[in-house]
TrEMBL record:
Belongs to the cytochrome P450 family. InterPro entries: Cyt_P450, Cyt_P450_CS, Cyt_P450_E_grp-I, Cyt_P450_sf. Heme binds at residue 446. GO terms for molecular function: heme binding; iron ion binding; monooxygenase activity; oxidoreductase activity, acting on paired donors, with incorporation or reduction of molecular oxygen. Its cofactor is heme. This is Cytochrome P450. It is found in: Membrane. One of its GO terms (cellular component) is membrane. Keywords: Heme, Iron, Metal-binding, Monooxygenase, Oxidoreductase. It is a single-pass membrane protein.
Amino acid sequence: MDLLLLGALLLIMLLLSIFWYKNASWNLGGKAPALPPGPRGLPIVGYLPFMGSDMLRKLTDLYHKYGPIYKLRLGSKLAVVITSPSLVKQVLRDQDLIFAHRDPTVAGFTYSRGAKDVVFSPPNSSWRAMRKVLVKETQSSSGLDASYQLRKEQLRKAIGYVYSKSGEAVGFGELVFQTQVNVVMNLMWGGIGSEERLGTEFKALNSEISHLLAKPNVSDFFPLISWLDLQGVKKQMGKVVDSLDKILESFINEREKLSGSSLVKNEVGRKDFLQTVLELKENKDSDLPTLSRDQLKSLLSEIVSGGSDTAATTVDFAMAELLNSPEAMREVQKELSDVVGMSNMVEEFHLPKLHYLKAVIKETFRLHPPVPFLVPRSPLQNSTVGEYTIPKGTKILINVWAIHRDPSIWDSPGEFKPERFLHDDAADFKGNSFQFIPFGSGRRICPGLPLAERMVAYFLASFLHSFDWKSEDGKKLDMSETVGIVLAKTNPTVAIPTPRLTDASLYI
Ligand code: HEM
């Protein structure tokens, strides 16, 4: 019976694939240029069985074989992979509006309550309103300065913890991930009260979300049968989103009750995102849009999920690269001693003077871009890239990882050499140098960039200035990478700290 069912299912999938293929080809019209080249796959499943588990290497090997633009059929979905700065420019700048759409997975669509958040929404008025509020908070110096204390208190807790483990092996990678989630949660709603128990529940749900978002799902490769939800991903995500909703509702309700009380007259540096957004309603002079309850909840949860793992994985990789490059480690610590002084902790105002540290961070973004294929784009209409047709609805993967390691662009691309970013004309990551795009580019460039830049620099500087670090067995650290929701170190960094500052009371 099971075999019969499977056979029937395969037959339906075959018929649907043929229908889809014919329809897609027909839509291109007679005179359109050809589709990009690409490997042949099997009927129905396309190239899926050959993808293997190492997507970075597989898509980069295919680039070496088929060139900077190639297609892949993954089930009934067409994906196009782009691996050259000039073609990236065509997509992200020259045809920005056409390619500003996303192609959310079933898990992503459910998580974003029907693509109603900033990440997955089409570029419509609701997306613009949410992005505007987010950008104001995370890009203006005043917005960033207003929340400094919220970052500082969580980081200082982590430094205190490491101090208590001096001389012992510390799971640095794990610690950074935990601290980063705490920091971002604090930035969102931690300014005034907020129940700790709910924060812990939120964290658990957040990891469940990351797990479901990263899980390969048959429904994404065969959209026409996605209603069957064969793996139950949609159902599970629906449940998580409902629970998340309840927690966010209670944070908002709690804060609304406090509105107008003396508690809400924030101390300098403790203004959280929730408070800022709620105050928008009262501030008639603000040019920022007032967000609906659903928009506010979406923003709160996506900032925690978008802003935590990305920044944490960068700090984890940077520490590991420095442990493997003693000269760079000496250089960055010397700069910290000169700029900050051995009897002070790092403060955010020191950051603009830490040029070598900034080069270390850029070099880490180059070698280990946290979002190695960007968040996939999808064209709104049939279009042309290079000399090829890209049909409407294609999933566009930009292979940032391979561009960042291309020997025709970078000298000794596999080596960790922060010095390459010390020159005045070195590439920046603000979306203008298409050979270096860890935050993407164009109208959908990461809106959290300035906040991320500050958090990564502040974290890394603080851990490196407060402690000397060495690996457990004196050997080089394994730098293997795993692609999940972000690019992570397969084995998070473990290292042994020794206090470095002259005044022990600074740690407590
Ligand atoms: C090291 C840290 C981070 C990295 C490397 C990173 C990277 C990215 C990338 C590559 C994209 C896709 C851009 C594109 O499609 O062109 C993106 C989008 C996004 N990021 Fe980040 N991100 C980081 C931190 C953050 C933080 C801290 C926040 C929140 C404050 C954030 C919020 C978002 C949002 C909301 C989007 C979707 C934007 C849109 O679709 O309009 N990210 N990020």
